[in-house]
Amino acid sequence: MVIETINERQWSPRLLAWFAQHRRDLPWRTEPRDPYHVWVAEIMLQQTKVEAVRPYYENWLHVFPTMEALAAAEPDEVLRQWQGLGYYSRARNLHAAVREVMTKYGGTVPQTAKEIRTLKGIGEYTAGAILSIAYGQDETAVDGNVLRIFARVYGIARNILSSRVKKEITQLVAAQLPTGKAGMFNEALMDFGAMVCIPKTPHCEVCPLMTMCRAYCAGREKELPIRVTRKKVPVENRTVVMIRKQGAWLIHRRPPTGLLASMWEFPNVPGKGPDGREAVRQLLAQVGGQVAIESHPLATREHVFSHKKWRLTIYAGTWCGGTLLSGKEWQWLPIRAYTTVPWAGPHGKLTALEA
DNA sequence: AATTCGGGGAG
DNA sequence: CTCCCAGAATT
């Protein structure tokens, strides 16, 4: 097979040829393209699958066939028609923006990027989509499909969700935009991304760009694109007690394996409030001591790991008696020697609380 | 740059 | 169950 290089190459004709054969017949693609229709479709399609949008779109144009009709509607009625489609700000913004078009632009959807971008709910992508599809302007419309396709074709192994990569891909799209056919190209990318260059398992065997796709040629089409999301880490409440006996703190060495292995910490247990304090008291009883724990926390601290977050509630406590079982995992640490042990995560910083 | 905002279908 | 989808607004 001949491997073609993608840099500097104009491949939009190949995609347009594919589009001519495989273009989806969608209700908002009636000719001539109406700016209002394109607008409604683009808003509904934000983060929403085509099949979910289809019935809503048809109903919408039935209930609000024109911008005049939509502008005249009550907000509750507008929201009612959107009910079930999700992201309800889209409906509120669309309603407000259409009203603005009626009053401020004489009922004509603005034809410049600058003006159309001021309308509520119309961001970078939607502005480009409306201007290119409805008005035939040479504008890019970079959405999730485009980011995925370009990341693969150009072999971009970086986070497509970062603004930097988005900007770079936008430049690549602009360089590829066929003059006078930007709208068609943008729609071709949508269909291509929905039918061939799909997220998980792309259909490379039928792809018209396979010979020039860097990801495919490297056998990495399933590894791209890369999307790094901040998955919310679980929060773990822990109760920490700083126990003093004369000039020393009672500290504990963590297990030799696992999180913060073998590092030293103040006595602590999962949980918070009275239950947490009671759990610490019992823990120390097992070790051989009776302790009294203050009823009010000394401080709270949060510490973020890659996979979890500790929310620490720190109490002061006093050693009331007993003998510490001999062993290597507990010891009394002279206060002035606090820098001599390796502290587990945030525990070292707690020494500042009771200096 | 990170969060929030819905709902549904695919894997 | 997780991921992802024709994103935008807010912080």
Automatic annotation (TrEMBL):
- Record text on cofactor binding: Binds 1 [4Fe-4S] cluster.
CDD domains, A to Z: ENDO3c, NUDIX_DNA_Glycosylase_C-MutY
An MF annotation (GO) of this entry:
hydrolase activity, acting on glycosyl bonds
Q: Organism's domain of life?
A: Bacteria
What cofactor does this protein call for?
[4Fe-4S] cluster
Q: Which SUPFAM superfamilies match?
A: DNA-glycosylase (SSF48150), Nudix (SSF55811)
Q: Please give the catalytic activity noted in the UniProt record.
A: Hydrolyzes free adenine bases from 7,8-dihydro-8-oxoguanine:adenine mismatched double-stranded DNA, leaving an apurinic site
Enzyme class, broadest EC rank: hydrolase
**One Pfam annotation, family name?**
HHH
Query: Its Enzyme Commission number?
Result: 3.2.2.31
- Domain HhH-GPD stretches: 44-195
Q: What does this protein do?
A: Adenine glycosylase active on G-A mispairs.
Protein name as it appears in the record:
Adenine DNA glycosylase
